[in-house]
């Protein structure tokens, strides 16, 4: 099986560590602080909006706001579980149930030597990204509205979160949309490695002498790739949920 190139050990979210391990992109870890990087990402209109949110008087708080309860906690857990289940249960990422079954490892109905089109995986990845963006965006707005109805300090935090979401959502979308393209190289390396292993096994069997080559199951590489892509999607889900976790933590203190 192909081995991913050794890269500089990254700290940070599991998504970054996974991509560093699976891809052939060797990008040095940034030496800039978070505040320095954010200053480059925020446009001047975003900076003005953020400054206003931090310096102006917080919005008024309406009386009789509904208290944060287990219902909201349960809804957040439900959204997370629903998105994770959609990733884990997607038919495109389904792996063979029995080891050594080439027919199960390859797309349904395809012969063992049929070419596999990466575009199918890319399109499904993008579709699941859209589901995550929609579901998490709705949940984030709901929690922000609850936060804004608590105290003046929490209302200010809700405004800051809204400003940051508007300022960074396009950049986040563009960066995450590039992930399927990065994984294409991993897909091709796994396939090429299996083809080479099978060719070596065939050549070794024809030769009168030679080193024995470990047997390989045609199509097994695809199971490995499917599991890796699922792992990346689940790690991305965790990154996308971080703002929600922050809002939840703030609501629990109210």
UniProtKB/TrEMBL annotation:
Question: This chain belongs to which protein, by name?
Answer: DUF3348 domain-containing protein
Task: List the Pfam families hit by this protein, alphabetically.
Answer: DUF3348
InterPro entries recorded for this chain?
DUF3348 (IPR021783)
